[in-house]
Amino acid sequence: MKNPHYMYAQAFRSYKNLAAQGHPEAQRLLGMMYENGQGVPKNYLEASRWYEKAASAGDMGGVVRLGLLHANGRGIPKNFVEGCKLFLIAKDMGYPNAQALLDQLTPKMTAEEVAEANALAEEWAPAAQE
C-alpha cells in the first residue's frame, strides 16, 4: 500500500490542476483537502475560497461545505445569514440533509435574519446560469 501522504500529495496536484481549469467538483475536493489538512496544512480560509468557487459554479457539495463553514465560523467569521442562505440553496438543489441543517441553524437566528437569508437565497444563481 502506498504512503497516504504521497497519495494525498498526488491527489492535491490533480485537483489543483482541474480546479484551476474551472472544474467545480475538483474545486470542492480541493477545499475539503484544505479543510481537513489532507496533503496540505489545514487552512479554513483557503478551503472557503475553493468552496466558494465550486458553489458559484453550482456544485451542491460546495454550497453545503461553504454553508457549514459560515454557520460554524470555521476559519471565517460566523455568519448565520450566509450559512442559512447556502442551506436554503442546497435544499432547492435537492440536498437531502438540508432541512436538518436548517433546523439546527434557524433557532439561533432572529426572524429578520431568516427573512434576509430567504431573500438572498431567492436571488442566488450559479455563475453558469447568470
TrEMBL record:
One Pfam family cited in the UniProt record for this chain: Sel1
Q: Which domain of life is it from?
A: Bacteria
- Which SMART domains does the UniProt record give? SEL1
Q: Which InterPro entries match?
A: Sel1-like, Sel1_AlgK, TPR-like_helical_dom_sf
What name does the UniProt record give this protein? Answer: Sel1 domain protein repeat-containing protein
